[in-house]
Amino acid sequence: MKPVTIGLLGLGTVGQGVATILARNAAEIERRTGRPIHVTRAAVRNRSKAEALALGIDITTDAAALVSDPTIDIVCEAIGGEDPTLSLLHSAIDNGKHVVTANKALIAVHGNALLEAARAKGVAVAYESCVAGGIPIIKALREGLSANRIEWLAGIINGTGNFILSEMAEKGRSFEDVLAEAQAYGYAEADPTFDVEGIDAAHKLTIMASVAFGMPLEFDAVYTEGISKIQREDVEFAQELGYRIKHLGVARQRDDGVELRVHPTLIPERRLLANVNGVMNAVVVHGDAVGPTLYYGAGAGSEPTGSSMVADIIDITRTMDAHPSHRVPALAFQPEALHSQTLLQTPDYEAAYYLRLRALDQPGVLATVTTIFGDLGISIEAIVQKEPDPSDVSEPIPTVPIIILTGRVREGLVEQAIIRIEALDTITQPLTRIRVETL
Ligand code: NDP
Ligand code: HSE
C-alpha cells in the first residue's frame, strides 16, 4: 500500500523522539497499520544543527512550504508556542493535511477553532502527547472509559514540577538546581514558568476536562497555583502528618457545576499518587460505572512523548480512508453535543485544608483560633503546635508555628477563617493555605 508521509514541524526533544521511534519500529508499526509510514521532511530554524542529526530526512527552514507540500499526508507539530504554529496548523488543515500536535498551550487556548476548522475540512487533529507525556490518557478518556459518566479526575500532570518537588523532598536539593537539571533533560517548557507556575498543568487539565465532561476547551476557567511558593517547612510538616505535597490538577463534576483547579495539594502518603516521583505523571479517573482507575508513566521526555505522537499517527493512518464521521470525535463527544458548564469559583470549591500560622507563644492563642473555626462550623481534624524556634528573634515574644488540618469544607468558609485569624494581634505572618485531597 502507498506509504503515509509525515512532515515534522520541529526536530528538538519531541520531534527527534517521533523520528527515532518511526525509524526504529517501522516494521512493527507497519504490522499494525498495514502500510509504511515515512518521515520525509522536517522544518526547523537551524538547518545545520538538524542535518547533523543525520536522520535521513529532508531538512527545510521553510515551515510554510512544508505545510502546503502536496506529498505530505500528516503534519506533526513539535515546535511549541503560538507563533508561527497556530497559522501553520491552520494552513496545514486548509491544505487538507491531518495534524498531530504536542502543543498543549495551542490546543488549550485555540483548540476550539482549530478543531472546528479540521471538522469543516474533514481532517483529524490528534493531541494525545499534549497531556501526561507517554501516558495514553486521552485514549483512555475518549475511548476506554466512554461508557462512563466521568465524576472526577485528578493527576500529577507536569513532569518538571513533579521532578522538582520529588528532588526537593527526597534529597533536599534547591529549587533552582533541580529546575536546571529538568531543562537539561529537555522536560521543561521553553518558558519554564509555564511548568513551575502551573500554566502547563492548566493547559493539560483544560484538555482532559473537555474530553471527560463533554465541554468546550475553557483554559481561562482553570484556577491556577504553581509550586514556586512551596516552603521547605510545609514539605516537612506535611510528611510528619503523613502526607506528601504534590502539584495536582483536579477536575470535578458536581451537580452545581465544574471545578477546574491546579495547585499544590497534600495527599495521604498511602495513596498511589503520593508516591509518584521524578518526571513520572499519574492520573486517577473516577467513572460512575468503573470506579477509580489509575494511569501512570513518564510525563515528559523525547521518546515517551514521541510514543504518544506516533500512536496518534497510527490512529490517523488506520482511519485515513474512512469517512470522517467514522472517526472518534476530537473531544470525545459529538461536536454539537458539547456544552459549556457552570464553572465554579474558589469560594465554592470543596476540599480539606492545611493551614500553617505563626503565632506569639502565649496562653489563649490556640483557643481564640479554634473558636473562629467553631463559629464558622469548620471541623478541625488535627492541630499541632510546634516548639518555638530559638533562632527566630523577629518578635519580642517567641513565636510558634501552628498547623491545622480541617475537615472537608467549602473554601469560602476557610477564606473567612483566614481573614479573621490574620486580623488577630497574636498572629505574626500571613497564613499558608494548601488544599488537601484524600482522593
Ligand atoms: P524543543 O525546543 O526541544 O524543539 C523545538 C523545535 O522546534 C526545534 O527543532 C526548533 O528548531 C523548532 N522550531 C522552533 N521554532 C521554529 C520555527 N519558527 N520554524 C521551524 N522550526 C522551529 O521543544 P520540545 O521538543 O521540548 O517541545 C516541542 C513541543 O512539544 C512544545 O509544544 C512542548 O510543549 C511539547 N511537549 C514537550 C514535551 C517534552 O518532554 N519536551 C512533552 C510533551 C509536549 P531549532 O532547534 O532549529 O531552533
Ligand atoms: N514541560 C512539560 C512537563 C512537558 O514537564 O510536564 C510535558 O508536557
List the helices and strands and how they pair.
Blueprint: E1 4-9, H1 13-24, H2 26-33, E2 37-43, H3 47-51, E3 58-60, H4 63-67, E4 74-77, H5 85-94, E5 98-101, H6 104-121, E6 125-126, H7 137-144, E7 150-156, H8 159-171, H9 175-184, H10 193-196, H11 199-213, E8 223-224, H12 232-240, E9 243-254, E10 257-268, E11 280-287, E12 291-298, H13 302-319, E13 350-360, H14 365-376, E14 380-385, E15 399-406, E16 409-410, H15 411-422, E17 432-436
Helix pairs in contact: 1-13, 5-6, 6-11, 8-9, 14-15
NADPH dihydro-nicotinamide-adenine-dinucleotide phosphate is lined by residues 10-15, 43-46, 49, 63, 78-80, 84, 102-104, 129, 133, 186-187, 189-190, 300-301, 305.
How would you describe the overall organization of this protein?
The strands form two sheets. Strands 7, 8, 9, 10, 11, 12, 13, 14, 15, 16 and 17 form an eleven-stranded mixed β-sheet that branches. Strands 3-2-1-4-5-6 form a six-stranded parallel β-sheet, sandwiched between helices. The chain is built from 15 helices and 17 strands. Strand 5, helix 6 (104-121) and strand 6 form a beta-alpha-beta unit. The mean pLDDT is 96. It folds into three domains: 4-134 and 302-335, NAD(P)-binding Rossmann-like Domain (Rossmann fold, 3-Layer(aba) Sandwich), CATH 3.40.50; 137-298, Dihydrodipicolinate Reductase, domain 2 (2-Layer Sandwich); 347-436, ACT domain (Alpha-Beta Plaits, 2-Layer Sandwich). With 439 residues, it is of the alpha/beta class. Bound molecules: NADPH dihydro-nicotinamide-adenine-dinucleotide phosphate (NDP) and L-homoserine. Residues 133, 158-160, 187-189, 195, 200, 299-300 line the site of L-homoserine.
